[in-house]
Design brief:
Distance between the termini: 36 Å
Shape: globular
Strand content: 15-25%
Radius of gyration: 20 Å
CATH topology of the largest domain: Rossmann fold
Helix content: 25-40%
CATH architecture of the largest domain: 3-Layer(aba) Sandwich
Oligomer: single chain
Low-confidence stretches: 1-14, 328-339
């Protein structure tokens, strides 16, 4: 099933005759579901599957929401041709907007915390986005306040996309991500796990999966403390809660420590050959906790959203810190599985 968000290229003039190849934005969605076998060696009756969202052209799950927001904005007339797209972002949605803006030729202004990874800053610069940096201590909420202020001063100049309140965010996952997972697991999924940021990925996917099979358990994940190092994730109790977030949709909500997210990102690289980002590491930490709670010999298919790859975080120190490395080496020595 091709995602409706692929309608975004409507902003690009159509060719008189079809050319060879395809546009980059047409590759949004239909990402692979990857088996993680070594990480579940202690749970032989559990199949752990990761939705590899870095296969999207912008490199993250946020391509889905951003492209649907742009497409719906154009369709509804709220995003007029003369306007600048404006939004707050911790990085990945901004990269998606910037990529789409470059492809469809509309300007993009982004408000984002100044402490996002240097890789994200360079990618945004490459796409030509205009960046307004906000204080690191204010986190993503500071970026939201800055975007609201900028939009309020010059409302006609900007289309304020507001990914935290825009229903096109979660609908991208309701129509796309959930349907893909259902098809790829042949309807055998028993548990769905995803980190919370804007909450759009979890809201849309869980809502549709519950309609397809009400017995699927949907577990949301968030940082376990207000101050954390999981970029893009929100600690809901201390943050500005997105309008699209509905906590009642989750069967359970688990707190994930930054240290566990780091450790599982490293473990995925060394045990599975997957270079994943920090929030992806957090998702795997949550998925393995879910697996550990299942009754012995209970068959389960656990699907975790892996929002992006590790290439945007390679400047982070945790990859090479001796304590993390030593802990991982010790765990490998005690592992029973073999190549």
């Amino acid at each position: 099933m091709q995602l409706p968000v692929s309608n975004v290229p409507q902003a690009i003039p159509a060719r008189a005759e079809p050319g060879l190849g395809e546009s980059s934005v047409a590759r949004i969605g239909n990402t692979p579901l990857l088996r993680l076998e070594r990480m579940t060696s202690d749970f032989p009756h559990v199949q752990l599957l990761g939705k590899a969202e870095w296969y999207n052209p912008g490199g993250s799950v946020k391509d889905r929401a951003a492209s649907n927001i742009v497409s719906e904005g154009r369709r509804s007339g709220k995003f007029r041709p003369e306007q600048i797209l404006l939004d707050a972002t911790s990085g990945n949605t901004g990269i998606a907007y910037a990529m789409l803006g470059a492809a469809a030729h509309f300007p993009v202004t982004l408000c984002m915390p100044e402490n996002v990874s240097i890789e994200r800053k360079r990618i945004l610069f490459a796409y030509g986005a205009d960046i307004v940096y906000t204080p690191a201590a204010d986190g993503s909420d500071g970026a939201i306040r800055a975007a609201r202020e900028l939009s309020g001063r010059e409302p006609g100049k900007y289309f304020y996309a507001d990914q935290y309140s825009n229903d096109a965010n979660w609908r991208a996952h309701y129509d796309g991500t959930a349907e893909e997972i259902w098809r790829q697991t042949e309807g055998r999924i028993t548990h769905f796990v995803a980190m919370l940021g804007t909450s759009g990925t979890f809201m849309g996917t869980a809502r549709r999966l519950k309609e397809l099979n009400g017995s699927i358990r949907c577990i949301s994940l968030e940082p376990d403390a207000p101050f954390h190092g999981i970029e893009g994730a929100k600690h809901m109790a201390s943050a500005m809660v997105p309008r699209i977030y509905d906590p009642s949709l989750a069967d359970e909500n688990l707190g994930i420590t930054t240290e566990k997210a780091y450790a599982h990102a490293i473990r995925a690289a060394r045990d599975e050959g997957l270079l994943i980002g920090i929030s992806s590491g957090g998702a795997l930490a949550g998925a393995l906790e879910v697996a550990s709670r299942l009754a012995k010999n209970r068959e389960a298919v656990v699907v975790a959203i892996l929002p992006d790859s590790g290439d945007k975080y390679l400047s982070e120190r945790f990859w090479t810190e001796s304590e993390t490395r030593t802990d991982h080496q010790n765990s490998r020595r005690s592992a029973s599985c073999e190549w």
